[in-house]
């Protein structure tokens, strides 16, 4: 069930990245954030209830609330035209938790690919904090491109792979995932510096997981 939610997170991240790039109006993106945010809160609740006290299952589901709350917060903020600072500072909390979940993926769960994915999400939420919480508007375009480029490889692709039984995580695939993430972040930096596109005004946007 968590992979179903991850699939739709890829969609909302893509839309939010385009919002930061000024391609999608904030209010237009708000509805999708509410839909996915609700899904990402209902899903872990069901998983935890069905876990029967299994600590590993509860731990695996717990991270979903970080992103469910983010998307709900963004949806409400966009539709109600709230100031973005609250979303920004909450994003800092999410980024810190994402680093912890990355460590758990690497050293407790033996899943280096998802460890890399968690680190990518930590980067995105850190950027949300800088843009929305601290008002670093010069990072808006880079953040938008980073979200757009990382949304599908960190969400949609692993979701489809997991649901079709094709997901593999080992040292080799982990290194490949890390190299791909670094390359995409570098590409986002290059696109952010490209001429002919004005920096979008920062608006509450979300980003991430499962």
From TrEMBL:
Q: What is its main location?
A: membrane
Record Pfam families = AmiS_UreI
- Single GO cellular component annotation? plasma membrane
- What membrane topology does the annotation report for this chain? Multi-pass membrane protein
Q: Does the keyword Membrane apply?
A: yes
Transmembrane segments in this chain: where?
6-24, 31-51, 57-80, 87-107, 113-134, 146-167, 173-192
Q: Transmembrane helix: present as a keyword of the record? A: yes
Keywords linked to the UniProt accession: Cell membrane, Membrane, Transmembrane, Transmembrane helix, Transport
Write out the annotated subcellular location.
Answer: Cell membrane
Q: Which domain of life is it from?
A: Bacteria
Q: Which family does it belong to?
A: Belongs to the AmiS/UreI family.
User: What is the name of this protein?
Assistant: AmiS/UreI family transporter
Please name the source species: Prauserella shujinwangii
